[in-house]
């Protein structure tokens, strides 16, 4: 069923930006105060690794449920329902215990995981001629929210005297505001017959779909390793908690223009391969510089890191849109790429913590970063080819008896 263009596209675009701004603060606010959390909650390095990894695992586990949730409630209503869930998960951190922290990340990961999957299909459906541009705007907003949380949490907790539980819980406020502002986006229920549900088949057997998925997963593995561990790495190297948080914030803030420019550049080329190579190369140079280069040069390498990771994440979302033939395939490809991809991505911060605990330093972690980046480059080259995945969509009634994927 073809849906007409939204009656208020600018208002819808603004509302999507507000939702996007809330998709990362709950994840990036933990790293800058992780040493204090470990001290006060009695967490070992292994437990801290699990704390930074579990949200990403939940993104992957709950993401594939998004098409079912959208079918049950509608995409807009599902997003409206999940934003208060996100706020509740963030508020759990106020309690300050290890149990509350781990419970919060499950709730947060579930809410963000489903919304993450719903938005690309919404962009493909409601902005068919501007889907690439809107994907860039959405990614830019994700990066902006991540940057603000990474930079503001440590000063709020340590210098303003709020303490890390209150500083982490404060990020529930913008989630509640986003839910209130999303309310007008809920469409009125149609007086006609029931909606036609579409079934997508052939996706999980398609090699191109797996290349998109693995590129999403491996570049996300590096991103979440940065969210969870770059600030502790810089603190171990001699920066203060506030300065380390600001470096991470600046790096993520630089992702904002990179995420917006990457779609424009990628669209100029028939293939997105040059964009993938530039993004992964720049990100790896920046990340290794933050780990190994002299501290006085960290700010420059943080800029390289921000350019690379902002462009890589934007490209990962763009490839979901470009490789899908229609919005139904895009919804399922988004669920596959973000579901499987985020489970894979969870290995990044987990192995960073475990490897550091085993080796006692960060040199081996730099080798791990290099291996992940090379994998992302390889699968990104395959995903960047100007093709569509071989999946097809058709009305569910006509697909009875066919295997569901």
Automatic annotation (TrEMBL):
Q: Does the keyword Membrane apply?
A: yes
Q: Which UniProt keywords apply?
A: Membrane, Transmembrane, Transmembrane helix
Say which domain of life the source belongs to: Bacteria
Coiled-coil spans in chain: none
Q: Does the keyword Glycoprotein apply?
A: no
What Gene Ontology molecular-function terms does this entry list?
transmembrane transporter activity
GO CC, alphabetical = membrane
Listed transmembrane segments? 44-66, 78-94, 100-119, 131-158, 164-186, 207-227, 239-262, 274-295, 301-322, 329-353, 365-384
In Swiss-Prot or TrEMBL terms, this protein is called MFS transporter, CP family, cyanate transporter
């Amino acid at each position: 069923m073809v849906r007409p263009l939204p009656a208020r596209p600018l208002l819808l675009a603004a509302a999507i930006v507000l939702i996007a701004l809330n998709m990362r603060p709950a994840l990036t606010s933990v790293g800058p105060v992780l040493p204090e959390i470990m001290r006060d909650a009695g967490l070992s390095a292994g437990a801290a690794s699990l704390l930074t990894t579990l949200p990403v695992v939940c993104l992957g586990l709950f993401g594939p449920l998004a098409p079912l949730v959208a079918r049950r409630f509608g995409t807009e209503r599902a997003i409206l329902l999940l934003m208060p869930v996100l706020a509740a998960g963030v508020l759990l951190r106020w309690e300050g215990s290890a149990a509350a922290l781990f419970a919060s990340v499950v709730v947060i990961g579930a809410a963000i995981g489903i919304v993450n999957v719903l938005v690309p299909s919404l962009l493909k459906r409601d902005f068919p001629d501007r889907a690439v541009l809107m994907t860039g705007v959405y990614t830019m907003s994700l990066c902006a929210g991540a940057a603000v949380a990474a930079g503001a949490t440590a000063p709020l907790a340590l210098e303003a005297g709020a303490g890390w539980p209150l500083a982490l819980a404060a990020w529930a406020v913008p989630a509640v505001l986003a839910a209130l502002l999303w309310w007008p986006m809920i469409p009125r229920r149609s007086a006609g017959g029931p909606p036609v549900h579409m079934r997508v088949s052939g996706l999980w057997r398609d090699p191109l779909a797996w290349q998109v998925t693995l590129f999403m997963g491996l570049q996300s593995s590096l991103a979440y390793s940065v969210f969870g561990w770059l600030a502790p790495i810089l603190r171990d190297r001699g920066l203060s908690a506030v300065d380390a948080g600001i470096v991470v914030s600046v790096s993520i803030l630089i992702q904002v223009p990179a995420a917006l420019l990457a779609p424009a550049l990628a669209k100029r080329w028939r293939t997105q391969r040059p964009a993938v190579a530039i993004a992964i190369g720049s990100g790896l140079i920046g990340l290794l510089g933050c780990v190994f280069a002299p501290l006085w040069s960290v700010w420059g390498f943080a800029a390289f890191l921000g350019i690379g990771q902002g462009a890589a994440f934007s490209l990962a979302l763009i490839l979901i849109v470009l490789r899908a033939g229609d919005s139904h395939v895009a919804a399922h490809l988004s669920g596959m790429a973000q579901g499987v991809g985020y489970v894979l991505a969870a290995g990044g911060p987990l192995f960073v913590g475990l490897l550091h605990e085993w080796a006692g330093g960060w040199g081996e972690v730099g080798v791990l970063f290099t291996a992940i980046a090379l994998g992302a480059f390889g699968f990104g080259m395959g995903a960047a080819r100007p093709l569509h995945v071989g999946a097809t969509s058709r009305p569910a009634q006509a697909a009875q008896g066919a295997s569901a994927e």
